Structure formats: C-alpha cells, structure tokens
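Need the bound structure for aspartic acid, inputs here:
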Amino acid sequence: MMRTHRCGELNRKYAGKKVILCGWVNSIRDHGGVIFFDIRDRYGITQIVCSPENFKEDEFSRIKSIRDEWVVRVEGTVRERPIDTINPKTPTGEIEVVPEKVEIINTSLPLPFEISEIEKIEETLKLKYRYLHIRKSRLTENLNKRALFTYRIREFLISEDFIEVETPILTKSTPEGARDFIVPSRLNPGKFYALPQSPQIFKQLLMVGGLDRYFQVARCFRDEDLRADRQPEFTQIDIELSFINEDDIISLTERMLKYAIEKTFNIQIEIPFPHISYDEAISKYGVDTPDLRIPIEYIDITSIFQQTEIKILRDIIEKGGIIKGFVINKGEKISLKDIENIDRIVRETGGSGLGWIRLKGDDIQSPFKKFLFPETIQKIKTLISSENSIVLFLAGEQKKITGLLNVIKKYVIEKIFTDRTNVFKFIWVTNFPLFEYNPEEKRFQAVHHPFTSPREEDISKFKTDPGGMRSRAYDIVLNGIEIGGGSIRINKKEIQEEVFKTIGLKQEDAQERFGFLLRALEYGAPPHGGIALGLDRLIMLLVGEESIRETIAFPKTQKGTCPLTDAPSDVEQQLLKENRIKVDTEKLK
Ligand code: ASP
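Answer from helper R.:
Posting the output first, comments after.
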C-alpha cells in the first residue's frame, strides 16, 4: 500500500497506530541532531520526527540530505506530542509521526520563488511555474470549490429535467460582440472555423429541435483586448428553455444559485433578488451594475435649487443642466481634506468643482452657506437619515455629471466602505435598450447580441426609432459585478431579419453568416430564452478572490500568452503548408 492516511487527518485518537503517509517535505530542520520535517499533501500537514537512534547511520544521513519539496513516503507510528509542543492551529497539531522508514520518492530543485511572496512575483514567472503555485496555495481549494459548485449546478439542473449537451468548438462565428478566434481547415483550404464566443446559436437550434431544456458548462472564446480581468477562454453555465417567459428564467436562475451556493459554501441566499430597470440603475447608481452593498444613491436635487441665489448653479440650471449628488450618512469619516481632494479630482476630471453641505445637528457647513435659504436647508434635511451627514453634489449636463459622480463615489467608497467581505447582494437589471448607436461605425449595434427579442410593443419601431426600442434581456449582478445575462430570443424569421438589417448587416451577408439560423426559424421555432452565467467570476466572488485567475487552473497573461507552455507559438512549416497558410513575418502595423 502506498499510503494509509492523508496528511491532514491524524489526531490523538490515532496515537500508537502504525501509519504510512506520502507527500512533499515542508521546512525540514535539524534540532540538535534530531530531524524534524512536515509532510504535506492537499489535505494538510503532519509533523515527522526522526531521531538518529531509530535508523542505521547511512539511512539517517539520507534523511539529513532531504530538502524542501522532495517527495517522500514515511512509515511510522503516531505519537502524542508533549503538551508544550501542541499546535492548536492545525488539526494534526496534537500528534507527530515517528518513522521507522523514510523513503525518498523524488527530489526537487529549490523552488524558483517563495510561494509566501507570490503576490510580489512577476506574472510571467508565476504562470510559468503554475503547478508550484497550485501545490502550495489556496488555488487548490478554489479549484475544489469550483468543482463542487459545478457539481451542484449539474445536480440541480438535471433534477429539473435539463439535458446537458456539448455543442461544437470548431464552428462558425457566434457573435457576442468580440473578435473570433479562427482555426484553419486543412481539408478545406482557405477556409476557417471560428471558436464559439458562446453556444448561443446552437442552444437556440436545440430548442427548435424540441429539447425543451438544455444546459452546458461551456467553454467560450473571445479575442478581445484583455484590459480588465478577462481571459480569452472562459467558462459559462449556459442555459436555454422553451415555452417560458422572463420570469420563469429569472426564478429558475435564483433557485439554482441558492441551491448551489448553499450546498457548496454554506452561505444563506435570500430569493427572489431585487430588480431594477436599466434607466433607474443608471440614474440611481450611475452604472448598469449596481453594488447594493454600498448605500449610496444619486438624487436629482435640481428642484431644491430652483430659486437659488448661487449664480453658478442658477446659470447651469438655466442652460438645462441638472444638480445631482448623494448623501453620506455618518459623514464624519469625510474630512475637509477629503472634500478638498474630491474637489481637485472633479476639476481634474473636467468638472467645474464640488458642491457640498455638511449638516451636524443644527450646524451647517458649506461654501454656499451664506446663500442657502432656510427652505433649501429644510429640504436637504429631508434627504438625510443621520445626525451627521454630508451632501456632495455637482452641477452640469446630465451625462457628464453621472460620470463625475461615479468618480467621486469611488473615492468615498474607498474611504468609508472598506469592509465589504462576505456579503452577497444580487440584483437583476432589466429593460435594456435593444440597440445602441456606435458613432465610430455610424450604425446601431445590439446591446446584448442580435438574437435578443425586442419587446412586443416596440416591434413597430424598427424603422422609426430603433434607439428607443427595448429588449427582453436581463442581466444579473452580484456585488457590483455582472455575473451573467440572457434574454428571450427572436423566434420569427422576419424579426430576426429586421434586427440584422438594423445593425447594418446586408441581406446577403446575413444569409451567408446566419442563413442556417434563419432557415431553422422557419421550421416551427418555439418561443424560447435562456441565460449564461460566468462561472469563473462567480467563483471568484464566492471564494473572495480579486481576480478570475485565482479560479482557473492555467490562465493566460494579459497578452493572451501562456508562459507555462509558451502558447501561442510557431508551428512546423509543414503544418502551415498543409493548411495553405503563409505567415507575413513583416511586423504588423
Ligand atoms: N449567449 C449570451 C452570452 O454569452 C448569454 C445568453 O443570452 O444566454 O452572453
């Protein structure tokens, strides 16, 4: 037998038992001729004590030659530690193992970096030795949680009659607003597959196929500039159903998340989640991904200043501008110095300065104090809910103000709301516009993807007011981060064609790219819709990490490279030839 126990499970109850452990050596040390080391595996760590009298001389000198991270097998007896050496912090801290035999299974080079210093290590080096990082950090636990969570999702969906289907990876473009990764076809020279940006079209075709309920833990590929915390390949929990409406999908998603999160993380989730319309989200929170952990809502206070004597504000209102801001209850944490900082930030970001009023009991502080009417103060007081509050506000053109308020809010959050751990606040955002205008390309584009259904009452607006059309889409946001989205789809060919036309796709091009979908829509496509949740991000939030890389075993760098395998790399000339590819080695401009 290779091992009888794992390194995290022995305790006092095992005292006197013979055991065999396997693992990596952790901090080997010599205490006056007695060799101590810890043996470590995924499950924990156990202390091993080797005294010279238990071994032949050559055996003991071999033990002395062992270095950290060597792989060993230890056969020995469990012994209770003397009281003063008990370590209450580890589950195995009451015992140690006294070996009769220590076998060196493999040696290891000294590690290229100290794992405890991993945060400071340059990314390329870190990813090159990803397996060492996995071995010695919480990555293993993150991957474990991810696997357990996915298992619960599957369990839930299968119990609700969903069928898990694998859709093609070598396929044709399925646009989600990013560039496609392409793969040459050797058997069809000059032709290319695209890797799926999502299984979107296939899942819709499965609905036409009568599958009724589909899901997949699906890998998606998007060739984007990896600015933020993105990966060129990532995983979605992808779902599609027939004969449903928005509420059915929303409620299914809530029940699924509640089930999987409670089972995996033992965190209680209250459902249903709140909803907010896109317009209201922008107006109250300045973004379509509200973070409900932060109790800051923007309020339009233009009407309060309608009669103001403050010239700068009056001028702005007369020009059609607005005054908007937010209240910070318990405002004592914002000092005069902070106000100065915020004012500077506003000016540096193109604003004309910060307005503020501090209310502390009956005392009022404000650069505008002299000009504030008692009624104005009275009205401001109705907005606040604590003894010591501060109102920050800006005046100007609506869109610009929202952008600036977001900048200020960020400052305030970093100053005040620093403890946001372990709270999970979900919200649905609904009622999105169907199209948005892209001024660079001078055309409309789909806000979600072009298969999203418009609302019934807007269908007549394709020609007259595409920008005013609303979609049947919904996004789900957790703690200010979009974790997924979906929609009811178009199931009528004519409407699908209208959407293609509106986003500037010529009829021949639409036919060439999506003819197979248009055809399927002519064969009795049922009403259908679905959702996809970003698994990497969801796990990141649930395990409390800051980056999705901490939830992916082998992520890529910001430039889309893999320092471990050196992908992407050159390929054999022969392979290029067979694929009829000539590489233009001249630097791309
Ligand atoms: N395919 C969409 C996406 O990847 C999700 C959906 O509409 O179901 O964002």
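Comments: The chain has 15 helices and 22 strands. The pocket of aspartic acid is lined by residues 176, 198, 200, 449, 485-487, 530-532 (CB under 6 Å).
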